[in-house]
Amino acid sequence: MPKVTIDTTPTCPYCTMAKNYFKEKNINYAEIDVAADPKEAQAMIEKTGHLGVPVIIINDTIIIGFNKPAVDRTLGL
């Protein structure tokens, strides 16, 4: 089972799309609300060099934005 983490904000429509997609595919994920946690937001920026969300991390692969083909490829779907 892959380890999936999503950095999100409450108002991000692409974050919602990504979470819904993972739910449809029965993929468990951990959500980090970077709007509510400045330390996590800073960690995301340091890790990716990006300010935008969602940031999806599958095992050690970082995907910026909800890039469904990249998500499927990384998950082997």
TrEMBL record:
<dbReference type="GO" id="GO:0009055">
    <property type="term" value="F:electron transfer activity"/>
</dbReference>
<dbReference type="InterPro" id="IPR036249">
    <property type="entry name" value="Thioredoxin-like_sf"/>
</dbReference>
<dbReference type="InterPro" id="IPR051548">
    <property type="entry name" value="Grx-like_ET"/>
</dbReference>
<dbReference type="GO" id="GO:0045454">
    <property type="term" value="P:cell redox homeostasis"/>
</dbReference>
<protein>
    <submittedName>
        <fullName>NrdH-redoxin</fullName>
    </submittedName>
</protein>
<feature type="domain" description="Glutaredoxin">
    <location>
        <begin position="4"/>
        <end position="63"/>
    </location>
</feature>
<dbReference type="InterPro" id="IPR002109">
    <property type="entry name" value="Glutaredoxin"/>
</dbReference>
<dbReference type="Pfam" id="PF00462">
    <property type="entry name" value="Glutaredoxin"/>
</dbReference>
